[in-house]
Structures are given as C-alpha cells and as structure tokens.
Amino acid sequence: MSGGLLVGDPALPTPGDPGDQPTAAEQAAERRIKRGRVLAALDRRGDEAVLLTTNTVLTWYLGGSRVHISLAGDPVAAVLVTRDGDHLVTFNNEIDRLTAEELPPEVVLHQVPWHQPLHDVAGWFGTGVSAAAEAELSRELRDARRSLLPVELGKYRSLNREVAAIMTEVLATLTPQSTEREVAAALAERVTAAGAEPLVLLCNGSSRSAFRHPLPTSSPLGTGAMVVVCARRFGMVANVTRWVRFDTASESALDAERRIALVEQDVFDATVPGARLNEIFARLQASYEQHGFGADQWRLHHQGGPAGYAGRDPRATPVTDDEVLSNQAFTWNPSAPGVKIEDTVLVDDTGIDVLSVDPRWPTSKVGNRNRPATLQL
Residues annotated as region Disordered (predicted)? Predict the structure, then answer.
C-alpha cells in the first residue's frame, strides 16, 4: 500500500518541500482522513461516539496540537468524536491559548471550570450521547495512526533531520571532562530552541556504561559515552542514539559495534509492509544468537518497534501481532553490553528510509545502508 492512505481514504494533496508548513487545504484534508478513520472504527464496533483522552491520540487527531502543560501530566483537553462533529472540552484557564494557537477551526469548543473533570461528557455536552472510552478502541486507534499521511511525513522528516543535526553539533564539542548532565543540558537547550520537547535525554560516560537507560549524573564522560534523545514536535517523536569515543577503540569494541549493526540489518530487512511484529521479533531473537550475542540478549532490554506519536507505538514483543504498513515509522534499538544502535526510519514499498540522518556524522556501510559509527574525538 503506497501513499500513506488506508483503504477508503479520500485523496490527499502531496505537500511540496517536506520542511514547509502544510497549507490550510492540506491540513483540512488531513483532518478529514483522520476523522474518517475514527468513524470507520466506530462503525466496525457499532459505537455512537468515542472520547479521546490521551496525548498520543489527541495530538494525532488534532494534527500535532499541544494539549499538555506538564510533560508528566494528563492532557488539558479531551475530544468527543460523534457522527455530527468533533467537540473539544478544556478548562476555562486553557481555552484562550488553545483557541489562539493550537486548534483547527472546525472543532466545536466547550469549557469547564479548572476544578471540574474533563471526562464527564454529560456534564459539558449533555446526556444525548453514549461515548465509548478511548481504551475500548485502543487497537483500532493505533491501527488508524500507523500509516503516516504526506502532511505528517513532511513534519516528521524535518524533526528527525534536525535532531540528528543537533546530536552532531553538541557531541562534537564534548571532552572527557564533560559531565553527563552538561551533555543533557546542551541537548535540551538545542531541542527546545527547535520548537520540540525533549522527552528523553540519556547519557552514560564510561563509568556507567553498563546501564541501558542511563539518566544523566554529574559523572564525567571519561573515555566515551552513549547519548540518547527522544524529541517531540507536532506530536511526533524522533528517537536517536549516538556514541562518542575519546580513546583508541579496542578490537573487541569494534567487533561488537559491527555485530550489533548486523542485528539491526536483519531487523530492517524483516520490517516490510505486510509483516507482523511478532514475526519480525522472532527474526531479531535469532539474529542476536547468530551474531554472537547469545540467545537471551533480547530479554535484557526492550527492542523498539513502531514509532510516530509515541516513543514506541507499541513496543514490539514476541506476542504483538500488528501488521506493518507502508509509510509507517519504526525505531528499532538492538543493544548488548557496551553497544546499541538506534535511528527513526520509515518503511515504504521500496524499503527502509532512515529519517534521522546528518551527513556530517561518520558512518560505516552495513549491507546497502550507511549506519552511524562511533564519533572518534
């Protein structure tokens, strides 16, 4: 399936430069398609309406609108999708900003006092509708957002390119004396200046290289570091891992880097339209053993999966059976002691398109793809 449209979607204009802001016509067409996908899900279930309440689904449905205040908090809005239209409710102290800066014009607005609940539909909409909870349609809504539309792809490509460039520019300035928190602070500043939100900032210097989710500390980097950024803009999340080294690489380290890239290559080759996540995961499990990491390496860290409006949407496991679609984003992140590889990619009918690329970063050839190498400083 090409073009990022599900069966039954109306035609959508293709934007010009992927970095351009979409036109009003493109945004309106995007909204019509997404609304059509949700209504089709309601039809299949026989539901009258659904109340959208999570940040992942709301930002997807509203074209990237920022409906949060705290990154750790619940959204400050909810959307009731009915057969007659979309109704957004928010608090009285949030409605002015949302109206001025975030919301598409065709959404019908409702407000409640800041101290009252958003999810009591009868309280602000009335008793004339029976709304399903978002959780009841979680699989259908995940299916609806899998294949990215051209408007979304333009914004997502730009974000990933910018995050990759930020990683290059910040990491090229590091020294063995730089601390993990200094690295995270520099990345947070650049990501925020790019209009994105730094959802995850990880860094481990050589003294903490055993940790696969290393929250930054005051430790100096020492002989090298792994750095991870997950940045969100327009609701979509770019995920990137890079490595730097200050000393001479040992043969064993270089060998491990080469082998983890081969695991990723096997996973990329298995990630094609029509494949199922559990089938890809089985290939990944076999690949760890094939390339010398042992049969249980996959148990020691999550392996990634579909990306887009969530860091992983969902995390792939041996039992997740979602089908891969064309124009679906993925971030696989195979890892082993001292090595990890991670970029955000797009799956289409021609193969894997790596989105988080900065041509200034050093690469090595893995199969027919250029993959990021460790930056030697």
Answer: 1-30
Same domain for 360 and 236: yes
Give Rg (Cα) of the chain.
22
Residue 333 has pLDDT above 70, yes or no: yes
Q: Amino acid identity, residue 17?
A: D
Q: How far is CA 305 from CA 7, 160, 310, 348, in A?
A: 23, 17, 10, 15
Burial class (CB in 10 A: 0-12, 13-18, 19+), 101: exposed
Q: Is 24 helix (H, G, I), strand (E, B) or coil?
A: helix
* Domain closes at, from 124, 146, 168: 146
Please give the Cα distance from 377 to 373 (Å, whole number).
12
Q: Is residue 9 part of a domain?
A: no
pLDDT above 90 coverage of the chain, percent: 92
Residues 169 and 100 placed together within one structural domain of the fold: no
Note the pLDDT tens digit of each residue in 100-144.
999 998 899 999 999 999 999 999 999 989 999 999 999 999 999
CA distance 333 to 181: 23
pTM greater than 0.70 (yes/no) = yes
Per DSSP, the three-state class of 153 is helix
Query: Is 218 found in the same domain as 321?
Result: yes
Amino acid residing at 312: R
Q: Residues 220, 177: contact at Cβ < 8 Å?
A: yes
Tell me the CA end-to-end span of the chain in Å, nearest whole number. 44
Q: What is the pLDDT of residues 162-181, one digit of tens each?
A: 999 999 999 999 999 999 99
Place of tokens 């958003």: 118
Judgement on whether residues 83 and 193 belong to the same structural domain of the protein = no
Query: Residue 90: which domain range?
Result: 24-146
Give the CATH number, domain containing residue 162.
Answer: 3.90.230.10
Give CA–CA dist 17/4, Å, rounded. 17
Is residue 5, in this structure, part of any structural domain at all?
no
Q: Cα–Cα distance between 358 and 161 in angstroms, integer?
A: 6
305 and 276 in a common domain:
yes
CATH of the domain at 56: 3.40.350.10
Give the distance from CA 375 to its chain's centroid: 24
Please, what's the largest Cα pairwise distance for the chain? 70
Which letter does DSSP use for residue 23 in this model? P
Is residue 300 included in any domain, yes or no?
yes
Q: How far is the C-alpha of 274 from the C-alpha of 154, rounded, in Å? A: 24
